[in-house]
Amino acid sequence: MTANPLKGILLTCLVALIFASMDSLAKFLALAHGVVLVTWVRYFAQTALLGAWLLPRQGLGLLRVNCPGLQVLRGLSQLGISLFFFSALRFLPLGEATAVQFLAPLLVTLLAMPILGERARPIQWLAVAIGFVGVLIIVRPGGGLLTPAMLLPLGSATCYALYQLLTRRIGNRDSALTSNLISGLIGLGGMSLLLPWFWAGWPALPALLAMLALGGIGVFGHLLMTRAFHYSSPVVLAPFSYLQILFAALLGLLVFAHRPDGGALLGMAVIICAGLLSVWVQARAVRR
User: How far apart are CA 18 and CA 192, in angstroms?
Assistant: First the structure.
């Protein structure tokens, strides 16, 4: 790691904007063409780019895994993130859906004990409780979002938490490059099985290119995120990732003309505060 916190922070802010823009494009495409086709094309582009970049350099040995069961579960979790969240974007505003998905770091606290055997401290449970209070404020009765569709971003957040925990379980047994390529192949295979049941023909060329761009944007964003970690630690950079909620709310206003009401903004702020509290606890643990 080359210590340059400012560079790492700027890259993290850029990644937050890139991911919010990608979700905005995904919402636009899912409304017009359906979630399954959009997700399949996105996985195809993502896997093709990673394969074209990695396999000539690493060879087929890159596909050998030491923990195939965990890799399959990790790939399915990543697929669940996309399917649940893209489905949520068809029914929910971009900012509110993004805020609920950011419960994932807090859900890690809930799931770490059964999966990793880690115990959480009381202040971590407090952060989890505050985060769920934020969700309740967003979906409060009369707010217009108290619908079954709100379960979709919660499902995405749960899959994201499982994805992070499974990545930690895999650890160094498989390389990060192998894990990412395998997850892409599993996602592409799963979507290929679903696609015939939802097939309605190819979209127009501009829409198809936009779907392919989703995969490219995702790969580019993750590369920038990895680069940011070369300049600073995840604990330092994590608070700035919450800018994605603000960028999503702004894009929801500019692109989809959705203005979050006061309750939704308060709920987003509470979730961000809960996340920052969790980051602060981790930072203290790292210093110790």
Answer: 27
pLDDT tens digit string along 46-60?
899 888 888 888 887
CA distance 226 to 228: 5
The pTM of the full predicted model, rounded to 2 decimals, is 0.88
Angle at which helices 262-287 and 234-241 cross, to 10°: 180
pLDDT tens digits, one per residue of 107-125:
887 787 777 777 777 887 8
Distance CA(266)–CA(269), nearest Å, equals 5
pLDDT value at residue 86: 93
Burial (CB < 10 A; 0-12, 13-18, 19+), residue 122, is exposed
Q: How many domains does the chain have?
A: 1
Residue ranges with strand state E in 101-233? none
Range of the domain at 34: 5-287
Q: How far is CA 136 from CA 37, 94, 132, 156, 167, in A?
A: 32, 17, 6, 17, 29
